[in-house]
Amino acid sequence: MSGLLGGLGIEAPDYPAILSAGAAIVVVLLSWGVGLFAARKLGPLAARLWERHAGSRSEGIADRMCDLVRYALAALVLAVAIIAEPWPNLSELILGLALGGWVAVLVVGVISGLHMPRWVALLLGAVASVSVFADVIDGLEPVTDILHKLGFTLGKTRFSLLSLIQVGVTLLVLFAVVRLASRVINHSIKRSKTLDPTQQLLTQKLVGVGLLVAAFFIGIDIAGIDLTALAVFSGAFGLAVGFGLQKTFGNLIAGIILLMDRSIKPGDVIVVGDSFGHVTKIGVRAVSIVTRDGKEHLIPNENLMTQEVENWSYSSTDVRVHIPVGVAYSCDLQLAQKLMIQAAMEPKRVLKVPKPTVWLRAFGESSVDHEILVWIKDPEAGVGNVQSEILNRLWVLFQENGIEIPFAQRDIRIKEWPSPPPPPSA
């Protein structure tokens, strides 16, 4: 046993070292008990604060807030105990293993709560655990020296395994931080009462772009990359934008312009070509339109800038619906028109002001053509269902009052019937 510990660089434990190891185990248990007790009190409070300022419970972090608080407080108490007093090697090993394990669980819980891939959560948790454990037992420098020696040289630049790990971990951490900051800021913007939905969406997109740019430059600074080395890359990136990514950036700018001039905003009912529905989302690349059939059409942002678009709720949500109706020439037109008004007044979605009206449009080939005009204020709920409800009620009223709905009829007149040919002679 002493030989094994000696190989690990740890002296064989004597009686004081064993007592110190026991004390370390007690400290671990006490720190866990403090975290467990405090999490029962602070966990629900932290979950409510998170839901209020950063997102709902279904988003992943609030529902595991008690566990996160438990491991965070236990790790904090244990870290204070490690710093407060020098510990023998065996005690440091015990404390380092406990602290590394709790930090790993804490990191995995936070990253998983941000709905990032599981492998990212496990990788960052493992890196955090190894780093904390090595730092506690003063073994981080030998690990970094070994990782720094492993690598290759490309031109005048050396790429070590340590630098690659640092860059990868930095990117993942920055991505997690950006995602967390974006969630908190977006939730705060949604709760703002001074911004309308369009301004909120525009602010969220601008904040998202700003966070990505800031994370990019922070990552370059942390990784120690010289900005002058990116000159060639920036030139290639410019060519890619000019050729391959032209449409992508065009749609991005078009989406921002649409949000700035507020010509189209979420909730609007629009018609673009053959697509009719209400706007549910203005994304980076396209606008999402959901039809009454539940089909979601993705219209590129540039199309909304260059094509003719009907916006039924741009300045007002009031929309007039035209319903054609024909009656027979022999019926009482005044009674028929009165029944049309009565049928149009009954649906709840039809506005009473302006009140429904009936126009006599034309004397048709077989009917007297009318048009019922009604106003609704919720076109996103559909137009055809209102027309169907009015026509169904009108059919009943016409049947009750003897109003005839004509159908196409044709009279055939034969002026002269040709006489049959004479029978052939014998």
Rounded mean pLDDT score:
75
* Major sheet summary line: 5 strands, antiparallel
By DSSP (H or I, 4+ residues per run), the number of helices equals 13
Structural class by SSE content: alpha+beta
Helix content: 55-70%
Approximately what portion of the residues adopt beta-strand conformation? 5-15%
Low-confidence stretches: 1-5
Tell me the distance between the termini. 138 Å
- Estimated radius of gyration: 37 Å
Order of secondary-structure elements: HHHHHHEEHHHHEEEEHEEHEEH
What features would you describe in this structure?
This protein is α+β, with helices and mostly antiparallel strands. The chain folds into 3 domains: 137 residues, no CATH class; 90 residues, SH3 type barrels, CATH 2.30.30.60; 83 residues, Alpha-Beta Plaits. Helix content is 57%, strand content 13%. The chain contains 13 helices and 10 strands. The strands form 3 sheets. Strands 6-5-4-3-7 form a 5-stranded antiparallel β-sheet. A hairpin with a 2-residue loop joins strand 3 and strand 4. The protein is elongated, with a radius of gyration of 37 Å. The chain starts with a helix and ends in a 25-residue tail after the last helix. The N terminus is likely disordered.
